[in-house]
Structure formats: structure tokens, C-alpha cells
Specification:
The chain has 275 residues and is α/β, with parallel strands linked by helices. The protein contains eleven helices and eight strands.
Length: 275
């Protein structure tokens, strides 16, 4: 099996960090999840592979939307972090769902041509070799199958405090391949992608989530590149984030007496259909 998992991802999402990640990271907008469920061009129950499934945040959002049009035959979750797999198994028990070790370019538990749909939520920017990953996607997909990539990201253009928060935490990224940098788009120009997939389709949703100072601060601390910092530096990040929120440039209150305010987000979905 490939062991090419970025060091910051391996440590920042390692054992001991996963409970916080699962508790404070946002789920996914229902409209985006419904959109993904309707990608396969078949009415038969779906075989789905979710690579980089983490603690099961997207998996649970997917399972929570029950409709007659899209039925599940089996969902095979793939996750290289043992700590995340442990939390996944605790939080995502379902008769049709399993989880196994694997990476973007090596999914040995899935046979050739098995999947109607591959889903990668909040993870593909960590891929170390886009060409190898696209080859593996093509191997496990059925003819006419598809890959759906989905990401959430704070909408820094919507409020001053969000931009300030992002500026504060981004200084610790350590040149990691974060989603916001768009390096993952290189996948769509690899030889393997061009040989096996059609041009990607792109759709975006803008919305806001309810948040408090605690949620926003802990969410910042759950970032992989913050989780790997020494304790004193993490404490300073938390203090600075709380100060930014207290200042509240552009903040929109939901319930000021309860300390609840809008946390603006965007969700991006990219769809790649197999030729």
C-alpha cells in the first residue's frame, strides 16, 4: 500500500485529534449532498467508494438524506488514518457501510469496475500524485461512473472577521497543499485524467452556519497545521482568534444574548465522469 500521506496530515489528523475534528468541523449543505447523490446515471442501488472518509462527517450527511430515487447498495469508506477510522466506526455504524485502510492511489479493498460513484470530501488537496490517483479512480469505477470532489471553506470575502481569522491561521500552513491554493486542479490536466475522464463540472453553494466563539475557535484549532503546533503556539492562536471574534468586524448576529452569529461558508463540488 502507498504510504505517501503528507506528514502534516498524518500528524495533524492522527490519534488524539479526531474527536475534536468530528465535533467542530462543519457538515455539508443538504443541497450539495443531494446533488452528489443524483450524479450517477442509473436507477439501480448504488455502489459507492468514499476515499479520505475521515471520521464520517460526509458519510453521515449522505446517509441522512433518504429519498426513493437514490438507494444505496453498499458504501466502502477508505481512510489512511487509524485514529479517524476508529471515530468513523464509533459514529457511523450502518449495515451497508464498511471502512478500510487505503489511499487515493491504492484502494485494494475495492475490485475493478465496482463503483458507481467515488466521493472525496474535504481531502483531495492532500493527494500526493494526481496521475496515480486518477488511474486508481478509473480502475474501480464502472463505465459511466463518476468522481465527486467536495470541499467546505470559510467565506473570507463575506465578513471582515472571517478574513482576519483566516489570515491569522494561514500563517501556519507550512507550505502544505491547502484546498484554497487550488493545486488540486492539476489533477484535471494529467495524462491519466485526460485518457479516462470528461472535463470536470463545477458547482458552488454559499450559505452560513450558526456559530459561537467556542465553535469558531475550536474549528480553527482543528486545522491540521494548527494541531501540529506546540502547545504555547496553539494557545496564542486561540487567544488571537477569540480577539478577532470579539472585535467582530462584519459579524451578523443570530442571537446576541446567546452568543450565536453567522459563520459564512462556501461549498464547492467538482464532478468528473468516466468516459
Amino acid at each position: 500500500m502507498s504510504t505517501d500521506v503528507h506528514t502534516v496530515a498524518r500528524v495533524g489528523f492522527g490519534t488524539g485529534t479526531n474527536e475534536l475534528y468530528d465535533r467542530v468541523r462543519p457538515s455539508y449543505p443538504r443541497d450539495a449532498v443531494r446533488y452528489i447523490k443524483k450524479i450517477p446515471e442509473t436507477t439501480a442501488p448504488l455502489n459507492i467508494v468514499e476515499i479520505g472518509a475521515g471520521t464520517g462527517l460526509f458519510t453521515r450527511a449522505f446517509l441522512a438524506i433518504d429519498d426513493d430515487e437514490t438507494r444505496l447498495a453498499s458504501l466502502k469508506a477508505i481512510e489512511p488514518s487509524a485514529g479517524m477510522r476508529e471515530v468513523f466506526e464509533q459514529k457511523t455504524a450502518h449495515d451497508l457501510v464498511t471502512i478500510a485502510d487505503g489511499t487515493f492511489d491504492n484502494v485494494p479493498s475495492v475490485e475493478n469496475g465496482w463503483a458507481d460513484l467515488i466521493i472525496i470530501a474535504q481531502a483531495f488537496h492532500w493527494c500526493p500524485d494526481f496521475g496515480k490517483a486518477c488511474t486508481e479512480f478509473a480502475r474501480i469505477l464502472k463505465p459511466g461512473g463518476a468522481v465527486a470532489f467536495i470541499w467546505n471553506l470559510e467565506d473570507r470575502g463575506h465578513a471582515g472577521w472571517v478574513a482576519q481569522l483566516r489570515d491569522r491561521i494561514e500563517r501556519h500552513e507550512q507550505d502544505t497543499p491547502q484546498f484554497r491554493l487550488g493545486l488540486w486542479r492539476q489533477a484535471f490536466a494529467t495524462q491519466s485524467y485526460l485518457e479516462n475522464f470528461k472535463a470536470p463540472e463545477e458547482k458552488e453553494w454559499a450559505y452560513h452556519l450558526d456559530a459561537s466563539e467556542r465553535i469558531a475557535t475550536e474549528r480553527a484549532l482543528s486545522k491540521s497545521y494548527i494541531a501540529v503546533l506546540p502547545p504555547d503556539e496553539k494557545t496564542k492562536v486561540a487567544q488571537d482568534v477569540k480577539a478577532i471574534i470579539a472585535k467582530g468586524d462584519g459579524r451578523v448576529w443570530i442571537n446576541e444574548s446567546e452568543g450565536l452569529f453567522e459563520y459564512p461558508y462556501k461549498t464547492l463540488v467538482m464532478v468528473s465522469r468516466k468516459k
